[in-house]
Amino acid sequence: MFRLSITFLLLCSAISCSKSTQQASAPLAEFTVELNRKNFKEWFAQCYPSHDELKWRLLGWEQHTAPGFRLAKASRKPLMLWLEDGHPLGGTSDHGRELRDTFGDLDLVPVLGKYVIAADDFNRAPKIIDSAQGELIVFTPGGKIIGRTSATDVPAVVEFLTTGLDSFASMSAEESGATISEDLLSGASRTEDDFPDEGLSLEVFTRAANSLDINTIKRNPWNKDYIWFNSDEIKRFVKPIKISGKKSLATDLLGRIIDHGLLPPYVGAPSSWDHENTLESELIFSCNSIIKSRSTYLISGSAHYEQDGKVLNVQMRGTAMYDDSRDQFGLLEIIALAEYVDGNNAPQLFTTALRKVTSIDGWHRVPPKALSDYADAYYSVSGSGNPNK
Question: Which CATH number fits domain 65-189: 3.30.450.40, 3.40.30.10, 4.10.520.10, 2.30.38.10?
Fold first, then answer.
């Protein structure tokens, strides 16, 4: 637990997005939900994917095609490559989300253990890949295709993988042990290269909600996206750090969070919100402790947009830890509860959980550790020691 410095006990830094001067065509809808400092952790646990929803990530995926082929050669196993429009382990398609549920089924574990398994975005894969749809392809280590399928149900995938193993086992040693040409593995681009280590990447999980009551809300399927800020933009979140200081977050930065993290997961909803249509939006970082160059923050905020008869009302809460010596967040988590109204239709509800991702996550993998362990890993890698001591 952080020891509070008496000198900086009252230190706070605030970020707000100024109210638009544009007049609203209608008064803001009443939007009151119970989201506060005390129930933040409970809400975050509800909205962030649960262990059961993330079983698929524990299977040992190679995150790109080329290392998958190299490991298949070293292991003398066939390669099962999972391809989607958007990386299967990150922001992906409806087909990819269906397969995530499939790979969480324990019936697949025995057969998957006989493969090297890899996942990739077919838009960024090397030249050997000719896919234009979400699918599973079984290869020999030498690059010969044994089979491919776009099926997503468990029985069909099990049958496909079993048949692939039988075909591989019937091949000659020369055919099954061939090595793929490195030229065929060229031409790939890695999604994580779009997010340099010095930037800030937030993973975003959005769910449609039946209720914004923590006691009655159901855990609906989630969509995933990413938001990235460069190193200069990170400094605009909390700097300068000074007692009772407040700083307005530029409309473009808060707008990026709203455009990527607060889009309603409903048919007909806007694909973006015009910043000129904001009625009132703010995101406030209040510093509640500081030790040396590390400060911790409580986050609160709201967003209200009205555009073409569609209204968005959001409440946000969060927590953050910032390392001033590195101009980087060690931790950043935000939960948002939202109401979306389209014309005279009944309000539609959704939740969003945002969490910082570091390079140790490979950008696609959901952080695999508890919050405290995640912080320890970040500071251990960056050489700053344990943040809780």
Answer: 3.40.30.10
